[in-house]
Design brief:
The structure holds two protein chains of two kinds. Chain A is of the alpha/beta class. Helices cover 37% and strands 19% of the residues of chain A. Chain B is of the alpha/beta class. The chains are: A alpha/beta, B alpha/beta. Strand 2 of chain A pairs parallel with strand 9 of chain B, so a sheet runs across the interface.
């Protein structure tokens, strides 16, 4: 019988610590599939964030370092400048990339560092029990916006990918989602393209992935997926934002 | 290179870093260490190294973290307010057991303070600075030549003990020019050297199991194990790496304790006091962590008093008192906020201590 689906080499065969319906597992897998397809596992160096994915190295079978919260792109910059022949990517949540690490994100992109950023936007702080993220939608209830995000006190959902797209140093940005099998495949294609940009020395590439956090959205996994489709995509439209 | 040349401390330190095989520098401008940053911007491209003017001190120290992860000899520099910002990164370097060299050309504080020389970051440098149970090795040069020599030592100790090392200078040492000799060059680590000498570094996992660099240890007992391993390393450092310069330790009634710029002032005062018949000696710590406690303890049996002189309101003096353990008197004289103790000031203190002890 022909084997048509199996665990990809870069993904370690261990039980997951992620919650049911969480998007991290799928995103981890897509990255690993792309790395294996491109044959770059042995020269890839990952930079894990602070947040739920802080334990990403438990799932990835290649070199990985931790980074302080938000400093992820600065760490990746140091690695890539020392080892331009390696493939360096960061994996960051919305708090890491668009709140505490905004400065590092913008300046790493602006320098056109030849790294790849995988940005998981689930509009909430999962690791610390569901507080507001910079990407939290207007009206979304979180533990620090108990009556829903109010623009007068908490501002607006931060569209950092759009902000980054105007920088000349940025080569490729695409926003994708994982709320249907077709979208998962599109996300996979975007991740592969981003890594290919780095392999081709084209500079800074970023894929924003709209993801789910059923636990801190207070929804079932199925309803969480619906929320991505019905609410998140409206605020964060999918598609290529920059392509050089 | 053995001929004498003239350089300011900041530039001499930068050149010494390059001679020590440092090929990665990231920094953010702040007075009074800008010459160091600017020198690196000029020199690094010439030697095929990397210079990055970071967007902040936070970014700079984390770029150094990344370069160290990748196996390079890496350095950052700043002055007091900027060093405060780097503390997060220094704690992560310590927790991840990563070598790096951090230069603090101290200025007045707290807050924005001023840009005059100071020694008021002693507590921050020696007692931890960032969060968690850790130490940096702290080296205190007292001349431009020693800034050169200590920089080489800093990189060697950082690699040997897999720990961040801080060079604690001050605005005066950074700015002043003195003749110096730049000695021997350390070969830059090639990729094969890194793979051999730093098997923990992230180089891509070809031919070996993946390496993970982390300080997050959630499994029961795992963090305590790291903490105790670090403690063991600090104990080893304390037993092997104490460096100080002693003057007349066998023949003194009063011993001065001072490091860096103030030690030079004290040396002059010591000589003058001895010429005037007062038996004064000096201990000049070169390593502030580890601290030369044993030498001070040993001297405390035979002297009437110690006089600690600092450009602070009294920081290192606490470590002197701990070492003396009440066996002798410990006096303090300090200037702060940009004030520098003069030889005459120190001499007056010496005379008053000598007078009080005689009466």
């Amino acid at each position: 019988m022909k084997k048509i689906f199996e665990r990809t080499e870069s993904l370690i065969d261990v039980p997951t610590h992620y919650c049911s319906g969480c998007g991290h597992g799928v995103a981890h897998r897509l990255i690993c599939e792309v790395i294996d397809e491109l044959g770059i596992r042995e020269k890839t160096i990952g930079v894990a964030p602070v947040g739920c994915a802080v334990l990403a190295y438990d799932y990835w079978d290649f070199d990985v370092t931790e980074a302080a919260h938000g400093r992820t792109p600065a760490v990746a910059t140091g690695i890539k400048r020392v080892r331009p022949e390696n493939i360096v990517f960061t994996y960051q949540g919305d708090g890491d990339l668009a709140a505490i690490g905004t400065g590092e994100t913008i300046h790493t992109a602006n320098r056109g560092e030849n790294i790849t950023v995988i940005f998981i936007n689930n509009s909430v702080y999962g690791m610390t029990n569901g507080q507001m993220a910079p990407t939290t939608l207007i009206g979304q209830k979180t533990s620090t916006t108990p009556s829903g995000r109010d623009i007068w006190t908490s501002g607006y959902p931060l569209k950092i990918s759009e902000m980054l797209a105007i920088l000349p140093g940025v080569s490729y940005i695409e926003r994708v989602s994982m709320h249907s099998p077709a979208h998962v495949l599109k996300a996979r294609a975007a991740i592969k393209k981003a890594f290919q940009y780095q392999i081709d020395n084209k500079g800074f590439s970023l894929v924003e992935i709209l993801s789910t956090c059923p636990v801190f959205w207070g929804l079932s996994p199925r309803d969480a997926i619906r929320r991505v489709q019905d609410e998140m995509i409206t605020e964060y439209p999918l598609g290529v934002l920059k392509e050089k | 290179m053995t001929e004498k040349i003239l350089m300011c401390g900041n530039e001499a330190l930068a050149e010494a870093a390059i001679l020590s095989g440092c090929r990665f520098y990231a920094g953010y401008p702040i007075t009074p260490q800008n010459e160091l940053c600017e020198y690196m911007a000029r020199r690094m491209p010439e030697v095929g190294g990397t210079f990055i003017q970071a967007e902040s001190e936070l970014a700079a120290i984390n770029m150094v973290f990344g370069a160290s992860v990748a196996g390079a000899r890496a350095m950052t520099s700043s002055s007091s307010p900027g060093i405060s910002l780097k503390q997060e990164g220094i704690s992560y370097l310590a927790g991840c057991e990563l070598p790096a060299v951090i230069v603090n050309i101290m200025r007045g504080g707290p807050g924005l303070g001023n840009i005059a020389p100071s020694q008021s970051d002693y507590f921050q440098a020696v007692k931890g600075g960032g969060h968690g149970d850790y130490h940096c090795i702290v080296l205190a040069p007292a001349s431009v030549q020693e800034m050169v020599d200590i920089t080489r030592l800093a990189f060697e100790l950082a690699d040997r003990y897999r720990t961040p090392v801080m060079i604690l200078g001050d605005g005066l040492l950074g700015q002043m020019m003195e003749p110096l000799v730049l000695t021997g060059e350390t070969p830059v680590l090639l990729d094969k050297d890194i793979k051999r000498d730093k098997p923990w570094a992230l180089t891509g996992c070809k031919g070996r199991p993946p390496n993970i660099i982390r300080s997050l240890l959630l499994e029961e007992g795992a963090l305590e194990e790291l903490n105790m391993r670090l403690k063991g390393r600090y104990d080893e450092i304390a037993s092997k790496e104490v460096r100080f310069e002693g003057f007349f330790l066998e023949d003194s009634d009063i011993i001065l304790v001072a490091y860096g710029t103030t030690s030079r002032v004290c040396k002059g005062a010591m000589k003058e006091a001895r010429a005037g018949g007062i038996k004064v000696g000096m201990i000049r710590p070169i390593t502030l962590f580890p601290f030369p406690s044993e030498a001070i303890a040993k001297a405390s049996k035979d002297v009437d008093a110690f006089l600690t002189v600092e450009m602070s309101t009294g920081q290192m003096v606490e470590d002197v008192r701990l070492a003396v353990e009440g066996k002798s008197h410990v006096e303090f004289y300090g200037r702060t906020g940009g004030g520098i103790p003069s030889k005459e000031d120190v001499l007056d203190r010496i005379k008053s201590i000598a007078g009080a002890r005689a009466s």
